Amino acid sequence: MAGAAAGRTKGYLVKIFMDESGNGNTSQPLIVGAVELGEDAEDVEVRIRDLYKRLDARNSLTGFGSFEEFRKDGFHSSNDPVEVSVPFLELMRATFFKTYILVTDRTRVPGGTESERIEFMYIKLLSDLLVRHRNESELLCYIEQSEEMKSIIGRLPNTVTKQAHKTIGKTAPLPKLKLAMVAKRDYMSTAIIDYVMAAVSRWLQAGRTLDPKGRPYRGFREIEPSISMLYSFEHGRISSRKDPLH
């Protein structure tokens, strides 16, 4: 979240990591999020893997259930013990990235099923990102694998491009959209969007509290500097770089 992106030349390949949260759990907001890493994306991946190796070697936590899950699957905000989550959050604080988040309470998003709602949100977010990066050559998007996404991902390139052209009102050159499904262990950078969405979800479920004594508010403030857009289908823009809460 720290630092600033260096200037880059036209034709840069943009690397995005996406995931969804709250899928199938109506007590939680449904969220689709994306993290954009800069030109140092591969270096960030190396740093995360180095942290994983250092934490994996901590034999004092051997046998602890959530730690063993971390060893098997990598970083995951809902499971990681504090011995894992705190160092990972520290790494995030020292990393420049941008996040784009769409949220809904399911009342203003079309679709009769959760899968249809998720697909609509992916199309919306990815098409906006294509328009945002229309001067670049490629947008390479890694989506965390799930049964839900297996039935959706094949339709996304065409529908996203059509929606992007509709948004700009004409058929114009856009970045080539490449999508790949990955496991957390394949690309550990996917954990960044997982941690961001978890912080956003906790804050939303706490009623968007502004009480600094509350952990949901403090957790949200930690990740807010990375937010380029946090948009609710029911309430509009909640936070952005141009109009942050803080």
Computed CA radius of gyration, to the nearest angstrom: 18 Å
Q: How far do the termini sit from each other?
A: 15 Å
Q: Please state the overall shape, judged from the principal axes of the Cα atoms.
A: globular
Q: What structural class do you assign from the helix and strand content?
A: alpha/beta
Please mark out the parts with pLDDT under 50 across 5 or more consecutive residues, or reply none.
2-10
* Biggest sheet descriptor: 7 strands, mixed
Beta percentage is 15-25%
Q: In order across it, which strands form the biggest sheet?
A: 5-4-1-2-3-6-7
> What's the helix count?
8
Determine the mean pLDDT: 92
Question: H/E element string?
Answer: EEHHHEHEHHEHHEE
Helix content bin: 25-40%
How many beta strands in the DSSP annotation? 7
